């Protein structure tokens, strides 16, 4: 049985990697073997950082809620506990946005939950 090579598929594979490496500096965008490593590493970082982004935003929201809660005479943990006790179903993203853009509404929520 003679050895066959599928030139079309292998060329397409290489072209796809080089296309993904477009904009990289130097050999990273020109040489296939180097471009392949760079693209693979970039995809690894992209996957990891999609998870990290969620963590970082949650930390930011909690910091903003805590700052606004302390202005209103309570703490983050007491406020979240009171919200859960009252059955107020509002997430941290919305609470942080309220604290930042509409402090009066946030104060009303704090007064409602702490009484």
Notes on the structure:
Helix content is 76%, strand content 0%. It is mostly helical. The protein has one domain (9-114): c-terminal domain of poly(a) binding protein (Orthogonal Bundle). Helix 2 (32-71) crosses helix 4 (92-101). The chain starts with 6 loop residues before the first helix and ends with a helix.
For this structure, the CATH topology is: c-terminal domain of poly(a) binding protein
Portion of residues within helices: over 70%
**Tally of structural domains:** 1
The percent range for strand residues is under 5%
Q: What's the total count of β strands?
A: 0
Please identify the top-level CATH class. Mainly Alpha
Mean pLDDT metric: 93
* Gyration radius from CA atoms, angstroms: 26 Å
Coarse shape? rod-shaped
What's the topology here?
Blueprint: H1 7-20, H2 32-71, H3 76-86, H4 92-101, H5 103-114
Helix pairs in contact: 1-2, 2-4, 4-5
